[in-house]
Design brief:
This is glucarate dehydratase. The protein has 410 residues and is α/β, with parallel strands linked by helices. The protein contains 13 helices and 14 strands. The N and C termini lie far apart (44 Å). The model has no long low-confidence stretch (mean pLDDT 97).
Amino acid sequence: MQIVDIRATTVAVPLQAPLRHSNGAHWGRFIRTIVEVEADNGLIGLGEMGGGGESAEAAIRALLPYLKGHDPVQLETLRFKIANPTASLYNNRTQLLAAVEFACLDLVGQQLGVPVHDLLGGRIRDSVPFASYLFFRYASDGYAEIRTPDQLVEHARELRQAHGFTVHKLKGGVFPPDYELECYRALADAFPGDRLRYDPNAVLSMAEGLRFGKAIEGLNNDYLEDPVFGLEGLRLVREQIGVPIATNTVVVNFEQLASNVMRRSADVILLDTTFWGGIRPCVKAAGVCETFQLGVAVHSSGELGIQLATMLHLGAVLPNLTYAADAHYHQLRDDVIEGGRLPYKDGAIAVPSGPGLGVRLDRDRVAEYAEFYKRVGGYPYDRDPGRPGWYAQVPNERFADPTISVEVAT
C-alpha cells in the first residue's frame, strides 16, 4: 500500500455560542481542516487538525511531495520525513504530522480490517469517560450567556442531565481569580458528589495561583490545571498546596516529560493527540508516566469527530487512564461524520469498533460546513470578540469585568 494523494478541506462547524478562555475565545465555531490521505488500493484515511481559528489547507497540501509513494505502515519513517527534530526548528510540523498519522493508522486499520486500538495493543475499556467542559460564554443565536455562578451551575446541571457527567472542568482565566473562585465553589456546592477541575490556562500570577490552590484544598478536586506558566512555576505551586497539579501546556514532548520526571512539577499529564504529534507518541508518553507514577488524562483541543475518534482509541488502550477525558464536543451543534455527533451515555462515549478510526465522512455535511467556512471565514483564537483591542498577557493583569453582559453575533 502506498500513498498517492492528500486532500484538505477546511470546515467551520457552529458551536452553541462563543466560548471564552484566558487567551481569547472560540468565536462561535470551530475551524478545522479535514485531511484525506488516499492510497493506491483506493482506501482513504482520515485526519484532522485545527489552527487557532484558521485554515491549514495549504500546509497540508504541501506535504504531498513528502508522502507520495510512502507506505502508511512506516510510521517511524513518517515521523522523520515530516517532523525531523532539528529541521522542525525551522518548520514546526508536529500538528501536521499528527493529522497524517491519524490518516495512516486509519488506512492500515482499514486494510487489515481491524480498529486502530488493535494496532495500539488492544483496548482494555469499551468506552471512555468524559468531563463536562464548562466555559464562560457570550449569549448568541438563542443560547444564553454564562457569566454568573448561577448561570454556570444551571448549565452544568443541564449537561449532567443530558449526558451523565459526574466530573466538571471549568475553563477559567477570564474573570478575576476571586470571582472565578466563587464560581468554582458554587459548582462544588451544587454537585457535592462530583469531581472538579479548574484550568485558567497559566495566566495567574504566582501569588494568585497559590491563593486559588490553597482556597480549593477542601473541595473534591481532580486537579488544578496550569494555574501558572512554566515547569518551575508549577513546581513552586505544587510544593505549597495540597491539590494535584496538571498540565497540557508545558509537557507536550518527551524532553519536557523527562524534565518533569527528574524535577516533578506536574502530577498529571494531559495527552493531546495533536500536540504530541499523533496517537502513538501519546501511548509512548503514557508508558513513561506509568513507570514514574504520573497520572494521565486525555486533552481536548477543539475537535470534531475524526480527532475525537483518535482520543477514544487512545483512551481505550491506556491502563493508567484514571481521569475522565476532556472534550469540547458537547458544545458543538453538529459534526462532519456519518450519523452526526457521537452520543454520550452515562458520561462516556463508546470506542469505535469499525476498521481504522471507525468513523467516515458525511459528504453532505462536509460540503455544508466547507461552504459555511467560505462565507464566514476564520478568526483569531487569541482575541476576544467582546473586548476589542484586548490581548492576554502571562501572567494576566486585565481580566474581563463580570458585571458586563455582552451578546456577540456569530
